UniProtKB/TrEMBL annotation:
The protein's name in its UniProt record: ABC transporter ATP-binding protein
Native organism: Nocardioides furvisabuli
Database matches in SUPFAM superfamilies: MOP-like, P-loop containing nucleoside triphosphate hydrolases
Alphabetically ordered keywords of this record: ATP-binding, Cell membrane, Ion transport, Iron, Iron transport, Membrane, Nucleotide-binding, Transport
Entry GO MF terms: ATP binding
SMART domains found in the cross-reference section: AAA
Taxonomic lineage from the root: Bacteria, Bacillati, Actinomycetota, Actinomycetes, Propionibacteriales
Domain ABC transporter: 4-239
Record carries keyword Isomerase: no
InterPro entries: AAA+_ATPase, ABC_SmlMolc_Importer, ABC_transporter-like_ATP-bd, ABC_transporter-like_CS, ABC_transpr_FbpC, Mo/tungstate-bd_C_term_dom, P-loop_NTPase, Transp-assoc_OB_typ2
Length: 349
C-alpha cells in the first residue's frame, strides 16, 4: 500500500483536454472520491493512474515511485500493483467465485495460500465462505461487486481504483454495498480512489472529495468542507441544493433577501452568498425573520423541501424536518442559521 501523488497531469484526445493540469494527493490508506458530471474526465484520470493511458505532461507516483511522467518510461499496468473495479461485468462468468478472487494471485500464492486468501477475502467483503463455489450468475449485483472488490484486494495492491462500482445497483443495495466496500478498504488500509457522479455517494464514503469540472480539479477537501465551503457557487450547486443570493458584505456580515447573515470569512462590497436549504429556518408561528408565502412542499418522510416566495419577490428553498410542516399558501418567516459563504460575483474581479 502507498500514497498516490498526481502532479500537473494533462491528457488530451484531439482538441478535447479530458484531464487538464490535475494535481491531487491521496494519502496512504485513505479513500478519495472523484465527483463530477458526465464527461468531466473522471474515467480518463483513473485510466491514467492504472496505466491504460499515458499523460502528455505531469507525473503520477505511488509512494516515492514515479509510475508515469518525469521523462521515465511509463510503468505498464500489470506491474503497477493497481486493483481496478469497473461498473459491472468484471467477473469471469465461467469461473467460480474462488477462481475469480484468486485470479490475480501468483501461481505460487494460488498453490500454497490461495484457499486461505479466498476465505479471508470473502470474510473481508462480508460474504459467506460457501459462496466460493458459486458462479457469478448465481449472485446478486451487489454480491458480484463485493467479489470484484475481493478480487482486486487479494494481491494486496498499492492502490485500488473503483469506476462507478455501484451505478448498476438499485438504491437500497447501493448503500449497503458501498458501506461494505468502505469497511473492507478501511480494514486493509488500502489507498483508494472511487469515481462517481452521485453527490451522496461521494460525500458519505470518502475521507476526501475531489470535484472535477471540464477536465480540471476545482476542489479537493474533506466532505464537510466541500459541502459547507465549496470553492465556487457552481461546486456548491453540484454537491447539493444551494440557495445563491446577491448580497452586500461588510466585514463578517452581509445583507441579502434573507436579512442579515454572518459570513465564514470577512468580505467587502457586492458578493454572491451561498446558503444551504437546511440553514433556512422556517418559522411557522412567530413573525421573526423575513416574511414570505409557501409556494410548494415536497414531502420525503424524513424531511421536506419547502419553496417559499419572499414578499420582496425572491424564491428560496428551505429544508425542514417532516414532522410538522407548512402547506402551500401558508404565511411563514425565514431566518438563516449558521455561517454563510460569500463569493465574488461572476464577472467581478
Ligand atoms: N478514447 C477517447 N477518445 C476520444 N475522446 C475521449 C476518449 N475517452 C474520453 N474522451 C473524451 O474525454 C472527455 C472526458 O471523458 P471521461 O470518460 O474521462 O469522462 P467521465 O467524467 O468519466 O464521464 P462519465 O461520467 O460519463 O463516464 C469527454 O469529452 C470524452 O468524450
Amino acid at each position: 500500500m502507498s500514497s498516490l501523488t498526481i502532479t500537473g497531469v494533462t491528457k488530451s484526445f484531439g482538441t478535447t483536454r479530458a484531464v487538464d493540469d490535475v494535481t491531487l494527493e491521496v494519502p496512504h490508506g485513505s479513500f478519495t472520491t472523484v465527483l463530477g458530471p458526465s464527461g468531466c474526465g473522471k474515467t480518463t484520470l483513473l485510466r491514467l493512474i492504472a496505466g491504460f493511458l499515458v499523460p502528455e505532461s505531469g507525473t503520477i507516483a505511488f509512494g516515492s515511485t514515479v509510475v508515469a511522467g518525469d521523462g521515465v518510461r511509463p510503468m505498464p499496468p500489470q506491474t503497477r500493483r493497481v486493483g481496478y473495479v469497473p461498473q459491472e461485468g468484471a467477473l469471469f462468468p465461467h469461473l467460480d467465485v474462488a477462481a475469480n478472487i484468486a485470479f490475480g494471485l501468483s501461481r505460487e500464492e494460488r498453490g500454497t495460500t490461495g484457499g486461505d486468501r479466498v476465505a479471508e477475502m470473502l470474510d473481508l467483503v462480508e460474504l459467506p465462505r460457501d459462496f466460493r463455489d458459486r458462479r457469478p450468475d448465481e449472485l446478486s449485483g451487489g454480491q458480484q461487486q463485493r467479489v470484484a472488490l475481493a478480487r482486486s484486494l487479494a494481491p494486496a495492491p498499492a492502490v485500488v481504483l473503483l469506476d462507478e462500482p455501484f451505478s448498476s445497483l438499485d438504491a437500497g443495495l447501493r448503500g449497503s454495498t458501498a458501506r461494505a466496500v468502505r469497511r473492507a478498504l478501511q480494514a486493509t488500509h488500502t489507498t483508494a480512489l472511487l469515481v462517481t457522479h452521485d453527490q451522496n455517494e461521494a460525500l458519505s464514503l470518502a475521507d476526501q472529495v475531489a470535484v472535477m469540472r471540464g477536465g480540471r480539479l476545482v476542489q479537493s477537501a474533506p466532505p464537510s468542507e466541500v459541502y459547507l465551503s465549496p470553492s465556487d457557487p457552481q461546486v456548491a450547486e453540484f454537491v447539493g441544493r444551494a440557495v445563491v443570493l446577491p448580497g452586500a458584505a461588510r466585514g463578517t456580515r452581509a445583507t441579502c433577501a434573507l436579512g442579515e447573515v454572518v459570513l465564514t470569512a470577512p468580505a467587502e462590497g457586492d458578493v454572491a452568498l451561498m446558503v444551504r436549504p437546511e440553514q433556512v429556518f422556517v418559522d411557522l408561528t412567530h413573525a421573526e425573520g423575513v416574511p414570505g408565502t409557501v409556494e410548494e412542499v415536497s414531502y420525503y418522510g424524513h424531511d421536506c423541501a419547502v419553496q417559499v416566495r419572499l414578499d420582496e419577490g425572491t424564491s428560496v428553498l428551505a429544508r425542514m424536518a417532516g414532522v410538522r410542516h407548512p402547506v402551500a399558501g401558508d404565511p411563514v418567516h425565514l431566518r438563516v442559521t449558521g455561517l454563510v459563504r460569500a463569493y465574488r460575483p461572476a464577472g467581478l474581479p
